Amino acid sequence: MTQAHQHEHDHQAVPSDPALRVKALESLLVEKGLVDRAALDTLVDAYEHKIGPRNGARVVARAWSDPAYKQRLLSDADIAIAEMGYGGMQGEHMVVVENSAKVHNLVVCTLCSCYPWPVLGLPPVWYKSAPYRSRAVIDPRGVLREFGLELPEEVEVRVWDSTAELRYLVLPERPTGTDGMSEEALAALVSRDAMVGVAKVSVSKAGSAA
Amino acid sequence: MNGVHDMGGMHGMGPIVEEDNEPVFHHEWEGRIFAMNLAMGAWRKWNLDASRHSRELIPPAEYLRMSYYEKWVAGLVELMVQGALTTRAEIESGVPSAGSMKAVPAMTVDKAVARVTKGGPANRNVDVAARFQAGQRVRARNINPVGHTRLPRYARGKPGTIDRDHGVFVFPDTNAHFLGEKPQHVYSVCFAARELWGGQAGEKDSVYVDMWEDYLEPA
């Protein structure tokens, strides 16, 4: 499809500009005293700048560095994550699942877009998209291949469908060649995708934003 | 409801597209509608289950066409109209109706911060007996409710094993329709991938689905 065609298509598909519609809605709600603009600003700022996958990466790095912490994280994730100062909306009931040489975990929400906000932030578009939601449960190995991860047949794949209020975080395998690294350096290796289960952590991907 | 939102196992949705260095919000309006959904929730005219259901009620063709946050716009409008916080006429005109009372926002900056950091737990500290135990074989009931449910179609009628008991939680099938919380145990149920999808699935693979007790029967 050419860009010009795509552009035209977008206009036909969206009858009213959502930007204008949302602006009008916000004005109406402020006018009626139903919302406080400053509260909206605070919420947007929190999810744009404070709550994101760096939080989860610190949890993972701590678990890699401290065996007792890892045990707490796997047995009572809410308490262990709260110890790191994270918690709140859409992370009230956390479960951490551990990847190993034998087991690979993958998280999805087939019914909507449930995702552990306090540790990963708001989900990326692909996580909320029909292709991922439809295929993660029926063809997890195909999905992983699309993310560039080919798993040997003998590895057991466990898909976690977030149908209730439990929110899942994957504890990835610690990559080899990271002995003696500080928690901070380890956290920098941990990608969002690895904590959803669509990637592994590798030393070569250090600093990657995804 | 057997809606298009229940897409686990569907084919033909196309490739998964990853975006490098993806922003949290792609447009300013996405952040605003996201925040408005949270702030308006503080009026307690609806609950999380009802807000999920409001998006499921978007007609299938629209649901598939709309971007994620466009669905949040549509869902919020329906919730606010049903909750009598605004009228459709006000939403169309963008101005309050003559003589409408000016409210005081339910969510101030302090409350917004508290909502984000404290959240809203969906478990309930009530003494409800658990019908199932870890390791027990169960079957997901074959039910097709027309209202809200969190029992995905792909699991209905399928046998699985209780992996763990998560405790007692609000039941979305009633709560979404303001018919009470009906607190009950939620279990993680392990389904062998081959039970769900047949021989094409990996022999060792499985799908874990969180299920309220009302979704299950002994196998």
Mean pLDDT of chain A: 92
State the CATH architecture of the largest domain in chain B. Answer: Orthogonal Bundle
Helical content of chain B stands at: 25-40%
Task: Provide the CATH topology of the largest domain in chain B.
Answer: Cyclin A, domain 1
Could you state the CATH homologous superfamily of chain A?
Nitrile hydratase alpha /Thiocyanate hydrolase gamma
Name the shape of chain A in a single word.
globular
What distance separates the N and C termini of chain B? 24 Å
Residues in β-strands, percent of chain A: 5-15%
Average pLDDT of chain B works out at 96
- What's the structural domain tally of chain B? 2
Point out poorly predicted stretches of chain B. none
The major pleated sheet of chain A works out as: 2 strands, parallel
List unreliable stretches of 5+ residues of chain A: 1-15
Using a beta-carbon cutoff below 8 angstroms, give the protein chain pair with the largest interface and the number of residues from each chain.
Answer: A-B, 82 and 95 residues
Biggest sheet of chain B: strands, sense, closure? Answer: 5 strands, antiparallel
CATH topology descriptor of chain A:
Nitrile Hydratase, Chain A
Order of helices and strands of chain A: HHHHHHEEHHHHEEHH
Class from secondary-structure proportions of chain B: alpha+beta
Name given to the CATH architecture of chain A:
Alpha-Beta Complex
Estimate the helix proportion of chain A, in percent. 40-55%
* Bulk shape of chain B: globular
